[in-house]
Amino acid sequence: MRRYGFLLAFTVAVLFAAFPLFAVDYQALLKKADSLVSFPESDFSARYTIVRDVPGEGRDTTECVIFRRDEEEKYVILISEPEINRGQGYLKQGDTLWFYDPDSRKFNSTSSKNRFQNSNARNSDFTRSTLAEDYRAIRGERTKLGRFDCWLLRLEATNDQVTYPIMNIWISDDGLVRKTEDYSLSGTLLRTTAIPSYQSVGTKHIPGYMLIVENLEGAMVNGSFVNEKTQITITQPTLKEQPNYIYSKNFLERMSRE
Prior knowledge:
By secondary structure, this protein is α+β, with helices and mostly antiparallel strands. The protein has helices at residues 2-18, 26-36, 131-134, 249-256; strands spanning 44-54, 58-69, 74-81, 89-93, 96-101, 106-110, 135-145, 148-157, 166-172, 177-183, 189-201, 204-221, 224-238.
């Protein structure tokens, strides 16, 4: 009888491991991840240092200040370094994204899917997080990512406006995104992003450091393939209210002359 009792307990344990008593709401995980790094009730600004490392060619650094107003789907980016790009800027208003060139004094429409200043970041990386709006989770599993206990979710886009149609995403138990893998529609891994550290501002969280690896781009160095990558460091974050005039073409034009 004892043996049968043991077998019964073992069978129940296996069944519960394979079929959890409570189903996990993956979309709720995505909503929580969005909410922790989005600012619908306040403005946001910070300084970004973006270092692109191209194997065999060296590094180039871009310094910029970013202003975001998530409630109105707006952001402004002002480039301060390198000197040759000083005064360039971006203005996002809803679904429209403008790039301002102070040399020509013209605004040109650009895409959120394009590279930001020739780095491995995309323009869409600087807007509010919309994972729950743009993707559905088709499967998930528990896993370990370094020291973090995470949910690993496979996501498929629900619209064609996103930069990447398929993603793998690691969300730690505190609700923060720790890693993403971006795929093409055919399933080719295009880009990997790691976010090992965050900084807190009030109840919100801002990445302190991000590493983006371009999986298909790089060069042979000493007999080995080295991927092109971009490091992003975010400093001086604030949720202070900003004047309305910041989110305008006039502001970018004026700042480019200062």
